[in-house]
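User: Show me a protein chain along with its predicted structure.
Assistant: Here is one chain, sequence first, then structure tokens.
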Amino acid sequence: MHPTLTPRLMAIALLLLLGGCAVGPDYQRPATPDLSSFKEAQGWVPAAPADALQRGPWWQLFGDPVLDQLAAQVEVSNQNVAAAVGAYAQARALVREQRASLFPTVTLNAGGNRSGNGDSSASANSNYQVGLGASWEPDVWGRLGRAADGAAASAQASAADLASATLSAQGELAVNYFSLRQTDAQKALLASTLTGFQRALEITQNRYEAGISPKTDVLQAQTQLANAQADAAGLQRQRAQLEHAIAVLVGQAPGNFSLAPAAWNPVVPEVPVGVPSTLLQRRPDIAAAERRVAVANGQIGIAQSAYYPSLNLSASYGLGASRVADLFSASSSVWALGLSAAQALFNAGATSARVEGSEAAHAQAVARYRQTVLAAFQGVEDQLAATRVLLLQQDLRRQASAAADQVEQQVLNRYRSGQVGYSDVITAQATALSARRALVQAMADRQTTAVALIQSLGGGWQVQP
């Protein structure tokens, strides 16, 4: 190449770089419903400070040290979280790979050969070469930049997926743990009830042996006691399954994990709600959906860049000689500069089809993002309504249980005095047991609903700048 062509090529490349622009639409976050408050949160004043969920792990609001220890293990040992960590690391590696395409590629080449005719070594020729080569594709139309930005957005979506997987595992752990403690409470309740049923059976047995009560009273008492014992056995099975589920969530084999029975602490924290706009900033699934809209938006620009020619700059400098000693002399140097361009003149509409496809994919991503936002709003409203109703139900269940306990005692006293039949005792005892168990269930429902509300609000996750 003539030396005077070198400045011209460089000038052309500089003009192309200066005049280039990124094709495709600039990204704008899709519009979402503009709400100033939650309908179900009107008049609700939470006791916790507004930033309680942002300062530490949300499960600490329940004040259970065992739950604190288990939840801390989820981030380290849960295999679903580990898979999400791997996906995030892979996405970050892809970002570095895409950004590397914005820079030139430099290669080093070296070689040597010896050739000749016949058997004589005197006629053999040697040739040695060493050289540096570089190539660079100027991002005139922004295709490479769009790809790098898309990879970065994908990595951010993977980070949000990681946060979502962690929050989901932690929430599932909390629900299973509270269900296990509820089962322990139900077992303790049934144990106390079984003692009462056993005492009632002894009373009927004594009355039957004294000729006061018929045999049917004894049989009814035995039936009720056996049914209650069967319910207690069912609770043992339920507790074992919950314990196994907790073991898997913390990354342990169920055979190597156990939780000793403990007193249930039915704490239900007041969860700060805030305004709906903060929900868009704190929920990881919303953040992931929004980042995928950005990825789809970048794909439109990448597809549109095919309408324009692709450019490539190349340069090389090398040395060649017949002897290694002469390889690095000035007279053996060879250099070259080049500029190439390529443009598809006809591809039967393939480029426009790819553009239309990327636009359709963007529309799908926008719809999924908006649907995720609407589902998030629905989830919060549902849990707020459940929180309010369950509090009322718990108070009513407590009143019903207290009343049923009094009826049970009064009917049993009347039976001892011969005023009522044993069928009335059976009915009163069954009603009292049902009321007690319903109260325990209502208290557990309030805890699990608080966990669901925290998950709906995004837990302790925050958007990183």
